[in-house]
NADP-dependent glyceraldehyde-3-phosphate dehydrogenase (Escallonia herrerae), 496 residues
Amino acid sequence: MAGSGVFEEIIDGDVFKYYSEGEWKKSPSGKSVSIINPTTRKPQYKVQACTQQEVNKVMETAKIAQKQWAKTPLWKRAELLHKAAAILKEHKAPIADCLVKEIAKPAKDSVTEVVRSGDLISYCAEEGVRILGEGKFLVSDSFPGNERTKYCLTSKVPLGVVLAIPPFNYPVNLAVSKIGPALIAGNSLVLKPPTQGAVACLHMVHCFHLAGFPKGLISCVTGKGSEIGDFLTMHPGVNCISFTGGDTGIAISKKAGMIPLQMELGGKDACIVLEDADLDLVASNIIKGGFSYSGQRCTAVKVVLVMESVADTLVEKVKAKVAKLTVGSPEDDCDITPVVSESSANFIEGLVMDAKQKGATFCQSYKREGNLIWPLLLDNVQPDMRIAWEEPFGPILPVIRITSVEEGIHHCNASNFGLQGCIFTRDINKAMLISDAMETGTVQINSAPARGPDHFPFQGLKDSGIGSQGITNSINMMTKIKSTVINLPTPSYTMG
Ligand SMILES: NC(=O)C1=CN([C@@H]2O[C@H](COP(=O)(O)OP(=O)(O)OC[C@H]3O[C@@H](n4cnc5c(N)ncnc54)[C@H](OP(=O)(O)O)[C@@H]3O)[C@@H](O)[C@H]2O)C=CC1
Ligand SMILES: O=C(O)[C@H](O)COP(=O)(O)O
């Protein structure tokens, strides 16, 4: 049960505490925020509604703790991260249970998210000691007009205080994908968890507490993004923001000061299917890519662009697989579970009704009970339908029939998003040409889009983001280069 056993100290009555100065605290605001269980649609948990005062305190202590942490040897930082990873994995069951109740993620996937997060932290520790242990040595005589009188030593140094804001769909994993790189690189970290997913995040933060990280190095302030978000992102104490979520990220990037930003935002990942594709492979990937976690993944397949000549066959294969998807509660580990909120379900329904009115072919009847929406494949979608362009973040998948590859590439590139895309063909030469033409951060050949494995680079173009994630890129992004130049009175060339 949440807040029991080793997690007892993170709860006060029925309200979960926030984490500041190495301690679990109640907000003097006396206010709390309810977390609604997407399945029951009833309040499940409560968290503190932190105020600007608490944010100020957290920033102040994060700055002080970072100075000391930057002087902590890399191997010691890595050792603590490995310890936190082990504790997190040891307590995967209660944390996964929070995910089931807060975001209706199927039970098995919830456990996978926690285990994957532990592995991610350990990989950060290993990668960090390697890449941060190396710098550059440059000599001056490679630039015209110089003798060898200057040696330049460069190293990667921390940025300071990193603000991490993850979204609801991977609250734990997308939090540690920011925490791990920030800490190994010598930064301190302030986490603002998504409201849906906050309790899972608080449990995860307690695992870092139990591992023995210094006081103030990690903090976690809870509350609605709409209430404390601006104060956090515009806070002068923040030296870097790593954000994953929707359009909010675009607004943040306009408001944030002159600090490095890492933004992973929405996507409308296209799946281009050529005539020579293995249609069974395509159908399986459309199911996995389009419907896992009920389509609530930024990397979900969000539009299928299939050559007309194979469209009928492919649609039949996908329909047969959709019929086998189980629909119900996350506790029962169903494939399709309730979407995160009523407003999200209403938004999805709006897209479905628009497609209906404009003449899309419904491969199943539309069905909804509360936040639970049955999987739906929409065929013969046309460019004037909203579903052709907008991200449903739900189990609804549009199919657009194309008569040329160029038409598919054009649709993909006309989107304001550019996260990932995929191509199915047996011809690698064609696949490469199409991949090069697609304006997306990643193109998968013969598989559905995916962020993982977590050390792969992960980036979005256009409205899909700024910068690149993935463990190595995040560590590098959360550092800056510092040079020290040794000036010699006379040229000196090293002899062998
Ligand atoms: N590219 C990627 O890697 C991913 C992209 N996404 C995208 O995220 C969206 C769905 O996730 P969702 O969580 O609803 O996204 P949101 O953008 O609504 O929220 C993301 C985070 O931002 C917080 N937030 C809200 N308002 C502010 C603010 N003014 N300032 C600072 N933070 C704020 C939220 O807190 P609170 O919950 O309290 O409102 C939450 O922690 C989809 O568009 C999806 O594509 C999702 C996952 C991965
Ligand atoms: O949050 C998301 O949706 C992701 O970053 C996608 O992750 P996945 O491809 O591993 O599901």
